[in-house]
Specification:
Helix content is 30%, strand content 23%. It is an alpha+beta fold and 257 residues long. It folds into two domains: 80 residues; 150 residues, Cupredoxins -  blue copper proteins (Immunoglobulin-like, Sandwich). The strands form two sheets. The protein has a five-stranded mixed β-sheet with strand order 3-2-1-5-8, with no helix packed on it. The protein has a five-stranded mixed β-sheet with strand order 4-10-9-6-7. A hairpin with a 2-residue loop joins β1 and β2. α1 runs antiparallel to α2. It binds copper (II) ion (CU).
């Protein structure tokens, strides 16, 4: 199945994927059209102005817009129409107008060299406080277990579970350098910048397991920074989340936090 993706786009699995795909296809069709038009025009010119006995080059003196610039001007106008009619509205929909949905779930994604730390707030819906001085190998995000909100938090490495059809707001944060959250099936790619909390919203439309790749060269282990996004039915997701012990329990049994 994966090989087939070389010849086309990966499956579309988010609500805005179709908008992105429409633009990609329009762009691709335009490029093919422009390529063949130029090829025919070039062949015509080569034939029309071929070398003949006694022919001499002609020079135009005017510096204004000549007829030869018209095809370029048409392409420029088409590109501007594409940007105004398609690109800006679609990008605005994804990046500016985060839908208000009281039913949404929120997840923290804390990227580090070279792993994805995923934090779920648990039944209380509140993320536990994090402190940088608490970060260590067994507590990679530095969760403060003294904070009541941290008691039920679930923390996972490289595994992001999402319920089908439910809006998820993912807070992208970095613990060291710039990373990039890229899931081709969702048609989304977002840089993660240290010191910033960058929200990203996704409403998954297809059950499945997708690769979560880091798309920003972030160090020697960059290529190993691979996680998975698992989209499940809301029932399966709820059952899965319930089956996960809060990190405060597993941590206290193995470490002295
Ligand atoms: Cu990275």
């Amino acid at each position: 199945m994966r090989l087939l993706h070389i010849f086309g786009l990966p499956p579309a699995a988010s609500t805005y994927a179709a908008d992105i795909d429409f633009g990609l296809r329009l762009l691709f069709a335009s490029i093919i059209f422009i390529f063949f038009s130029w090829s025919v025009y070039l062949a015509y010119l080569v034939f029309r102005y071929r070398n003949k006995p006694g022919s001499r080059a002609e020079y135009e003196k005017s510096a204004g817009i000549s007829k030869a610039m018209m095809p370029g001007a048409i392409v420029l106008v088409l590109e501007m129409i594409l940007i105004i009619v398609w690109e800006i509205p679609v990008w605005g929909k994804i990046k500016e107008e985060i839908p208000q949905d009281s039913n949404k779930i929120e997840i923290n994604v804390l990227a580090q060299q070279f792993a994805w730390n995923i934090q779920y707030p648990g039944p209380d819906g509140k993320f536990g406080r994090r402190k940088k001085e608490l970060v260590n190998f067994s507590n990679p995000i530095g969760l403060d277990y003294n904070d009541p909100a941290a008691k039920d938090d679930v923390v996972l490495a490289n595994e992001l579970h999402l319920p089908l059809g439910k809006m998820a707001v993912i807070h992208l944060m970095s613990m060291d350098v710039i990373h990039d959250f890229a899931v081709p099936e969702f048609r989304i790619k977002q840089d993660i910048v240290p010191g910033m909390d960058i929200p990203l919203w996704i409403t998954p439309t297809k059950v499945g397991t997708y690769d979560l790749a880091c798309a920003q060269l972030c160090g020697f282990g960059h290529s190993l920074m691979v996680g998975h996004v698992i989209v499940q039915s809301p029932e399966d997701f709820a059952a899965w989340l319930k089956s996960k012990a809060p990190v405060s329990q597993t941590a206290s049994s193995t470490n002295n936090f």
